[in-house]
């Protein structure tokens, strides 16, 4: 599948093929002259390490596509996402003390982000290049030599995952590789930019999950679901709810978001079992939409499964430099984020005897057989702790002036009372080389809530320091842009066939009404509900206090009761639409506006979605202009045991652009959304009043049909790469309210 904003770069792949042999020669030289001496210096046992064969083969990496970002980002940068695929025939062998180790073939694929910044007005025009993977790349390695042991099933999975973790610790967000292209370029702020924001995920509940537990291979039992939530390399697990297909979790998780667009929220549901946990469905949510909407509270359909919906509330928290926002949260949630840039240390003691026991301790140890070990430079790492969370830096070997160059983030609940505890330890001896405690209240004295300095180490030499930069930022939920149409359910990325329509349109499966989800009264059975679309040009304020992120009470329409409809089936009220100011209290309150997502970009017009009972009503969009009408004939054929739907035609459709419309009609008999059961008319070219006269049958019993809902959408057939919205309008008919044997025909 080729997406419209991902470009194929065959010319670049041809350049790679041509240059690959020369790259291989450079890498062979690097392995022999740079890597081999470094490995030998690491450990006394590796002194005999020798590369016996280095061959990068003939197969070079391939770039399947490039996506370039220039609009949503800073003007002084260019962001490229490279879809890299490498199925290589490289062969590298190494001898260590008569043992032969080797690699014979590597597979690697993932999305590599390349950031070119800052753009300059003089050569080389780009200050630096930053590289990192958005998520862990997929990696498979074929081992050779003695390491064939690592190919044993079970062990090979472990070895590959260890190497993947090793790569992730250096190349996957928030870790980055930054290469300066201009001399004297300060790249610290490029390697460790302040995160884009924080997303707070409220995992509320799920419903209609698939049954995974079985008894004696036959009787289905209830599952024990839990959720894994992941952004980049950070993963959280929810509690397990025992024996429940409609679990309620009510848990909250917080993630730091480093790159938007790019990072997504992944949610996987599993059934906990003693042997192997069964997969129950997944969800992928675009954080760009959440960032723009600020708050999303929705039921999301699960992908890669046959049924199930997940209720999430997502809040986007911006990082602001405002101390007034640092009030403590009564629910115990985070109110700020602390970013620690760990730079380096100076004059660390060789061992803790230098300062703990003074001269007396030093004399005692002179005759010790471990004298050599204690006199050499320390191999140090740092433990940083805020509250109950501790993070560990990498280890710098054999240096009293180590440089770590790493960034860490911590969630802060109370900036005025919490502290950062720093402890430098020697990896060879379980002893501290120095400690430091920084009260976060010191940061509040600085207007930028930033400290960039050397901190004196306690329990260390008198001239031992650690250099760090500390940045405190308050977490703030901003008000959304009133002009913006909320994404809501369409924040969920493309799912499986049964919840997607052609072109990737995901449609929400309407879950049973829940009082805590919708505060709007339900419509009575004999009244009509009209859901209206906001003005296309003025984009009315869609934001309300409804808990659902994409729902607002809409203008009310005059309802016709059943007796009126029977007496005058062709009657359509002339003043069907009422403004908000003149709502008649006795009229039925409309449920909620739900925008059907569009595969077009965020800037495009929203698709429209209407839920109707079968009263005669014009479809309005709030401007007095109808969106059009569709004429249907529906009846149940008892002899054939089938529901017959005749699509006669449409009139007065509203075009999404001036290029004209090629309309067709798509029909589902809900809740069945399988691709195979989808009905579709032919496409009529360039008309707003198409005539179809096409008949469709659903072979179901009358009892079953009475429980179902007809979902009918009028769509615009257009090329996949088109930015026009696809859906022109939608009607839902509740078949439980209709006399299907008698049948009905109406606009």
TrEMBL record:
User: Where is there biased composition of kind Basic and acidic residues?
Assistant: 533-542, 562-573
Cited InterPro entries: C2_dom, C2_domain_sf, C2C_KIAA1228, Ext_Synaptotagmin_C2A, Ext_Synaptotagmin_C2B, Extended_Synaptotagmin, SMP_LBD, Synaptotagmin_SMP
Q: Which GO terms describe its molecular function?
A: calcium ion binding; calcium-dependent phospholipid binding; phosphatidylcholine binding; phosphatidylethanolamine binding; phosphatidylinositol binding
Provide the Gene Ontology terms for cellular component.
Answer: endoplasmic reticulum membrane; plasma membrane
Give the record's membrane topology. Answer: Peripheral membrane protein; Multi-pass membrane protein
What's a BP term from Gene Ontology annotated to this protein?
A: endoplasmic reticulum-plasma membrane tethering
Is the keyword Membrane in the record?
Answer: yes
Q: Which segments carry the region annotation Disordered?
A: 487-580
Q: Where is the composition biased (Polar residues)?
A: 545-554
Highest taxon of the lineage: Eukaryota
**The SMP-LTD domain covers which part of the protein?**
5-182
Subcellular location per UniProt equals: Cell membrane; Endoplasmic reticulum membrane
A Pfam family that the UniProt record links to this protein:
SMP_LBD
This protein's UniProt keywords: Calcium, Cell membrane, Endoplasmic reticulum, Lipid transport, Lipid-binding, Membrane, Metal-binding, Repeat, Transmembrane, Transmembrane helix, Transport
Q: Where is each C2 domain found?
A: 173-300, 318-459, 626-747
**Cross-referenced PANTHER family:** EXTENDED SYNAPTOTAGMIN-3, EXTENDED SYNAPTOTAGMIN-LIKE PROTEIN 2, ISOFORM C
Annotated family: Belongs to the extended synaptotagmin family.
Q: What is this protein called?
A: Extended synaptotagmin-3
What organism, scientifically named, is this protein from?
Gavia stellata
């Amino acid at each position: 599948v080729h997406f419209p904003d991902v470009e194929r770069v065959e010319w670049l792949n041809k350049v790679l093929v041509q240059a690959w042999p020369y790259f291989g020669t450079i890498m062979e030289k690097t392995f022999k002259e740079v890597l081999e001496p470094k490995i030998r210096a690491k450990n006394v046992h590796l002194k005999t390490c020798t590369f016996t064969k280095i061959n990068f083969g003939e197969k070079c990496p391939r770039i399947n596509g490039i996506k370039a970002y220039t609009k949503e980002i800073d003007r002084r940068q260019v962001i490229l996402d490279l879809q890299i695929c490498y199925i290589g025939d490289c062969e590298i062998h190494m001898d260590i003390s008569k043992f032969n180790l080797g690699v014979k073939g590597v597979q690697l694929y993932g999305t590599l982000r390349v950031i070119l910044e800052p753009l300059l007005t003089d050569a080389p025009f780009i200050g630096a290049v930053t590289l990192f993977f958005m998520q862990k790349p997929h990696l498979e390695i074929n081992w050779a030599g003695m390491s064939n042991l690592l190919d044993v099933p079970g062990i090979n999975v472990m070895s590959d995952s260890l190497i993947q973790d090793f790569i992730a610790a250096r190349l996957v967000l928030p870790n980055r590789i930054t290469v300066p292209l201009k001399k004297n370029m300060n790249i610290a702020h490029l390697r460790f930019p302040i995160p884009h924001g924080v997303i707070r995920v409220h995992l509320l509940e799920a419903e209609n999950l698939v049954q995974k537990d079985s008894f004696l291979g036959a009787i289905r039992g209830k599952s024990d679901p839990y959720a894994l939530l992941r952004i980049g390399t950070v993963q959280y697990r929810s509690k397990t709810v025992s024996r429940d297909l409609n679990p309620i979790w009510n848990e909250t998780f917080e993630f730091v978001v480093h790159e938007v667009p790019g990072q997504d929220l992944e949610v996987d549901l599993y059934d906990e079992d003693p042997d192997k946990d069964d997969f129950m469905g997944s969800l992928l949510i675009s954080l760009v939409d959440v960032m723009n909407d600020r708050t999303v509270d929705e039921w999301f359909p699960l992908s890669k499964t046959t049924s199930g919906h997940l209720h999430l509330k997502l809040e986007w928290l911006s990082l602001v430099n405002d101390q007034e926002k640092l009030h403590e949260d009564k629910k115990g949630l985070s109110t700020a984020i602390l970013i620690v840039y760990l730079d380096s240390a100076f004059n660390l003691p060789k061992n803790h005897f230098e300062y703990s026991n003074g001269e007396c301790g030093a004399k005692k140890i002179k005759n010790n057989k471990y004298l050599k070990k204690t006199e050499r430079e320390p191999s140090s790492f740092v433990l940083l702790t805020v509250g109950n969370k501790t993070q560990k830096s990498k280890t710098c070997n054999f240096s009293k002036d180590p440089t770590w160059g790493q960034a860490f983030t911590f969630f802060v609940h109370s900036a005025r009372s919490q502290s950062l505890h720093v402890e430098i330890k020697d990896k060879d001896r379980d002893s501290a080389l120095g400690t430091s405690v920084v009260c976060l209240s010191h940061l509040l004295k600085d207007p930028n809530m930033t400290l960039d300095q050397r901190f004196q180490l306690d329990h260390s030499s008198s001239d031992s320091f650690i250099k760090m930069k500390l940045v405190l930022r308050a977490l703030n939920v901003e008000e959304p842009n009133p002009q913006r149409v909320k994404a809501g359910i369409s924040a969920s990325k493309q799912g499986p066939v049964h919840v997607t329509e052609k072109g990737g349109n995901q449609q929400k499966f309407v879950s049973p009404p829940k009082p805590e989800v919708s505060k709007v009264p339900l419509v009575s059975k004999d009244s009509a509900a009209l859901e209206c679309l906001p003005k296309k040009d003025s984009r009315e304020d869609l934001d309300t206090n409804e808990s659902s992120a994409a729902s607002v009470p809409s203008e009310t329409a005059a309802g016709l009761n059943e007796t009126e409809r029977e007496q005058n089936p062709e009657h359509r009220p002339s003043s069907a639409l009422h403004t908000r100011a003149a709502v008649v209290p006795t009229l039925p309150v409309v449920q909620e506006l739900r925008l059907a997502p569009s595969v077009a970009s965020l800037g495009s017009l929203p698709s429209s979605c209407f839920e109707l009972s079968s009263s005669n009503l014009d479809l309005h969009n709030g401007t007095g202009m109808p969106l059009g009408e569709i004429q249907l004939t529906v009846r149940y054929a008892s002899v054939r045991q089938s529901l017959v739907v005749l699509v006669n035609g449409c009139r007065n459709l509203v075009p999404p652009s001036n290029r004209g419309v090629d309309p067709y009609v798509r029909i589902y008999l809900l809740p069945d959304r399988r691709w195979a059961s989808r009905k579709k008319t032919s496409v009529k070219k360039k008309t707003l009043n198409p005539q179809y006269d096409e008949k469709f049958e659903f072979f179901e019993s009358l009892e079953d049909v009475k429980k179902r809902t007809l979902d009918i959408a009028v769509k615009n057939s257009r090329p996949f790469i088109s930015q026009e919205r696809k859906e022109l309008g939608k009607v839902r008919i509740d078949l439980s309210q209709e006399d299907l044997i008698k049948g009905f025909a109406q606009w």
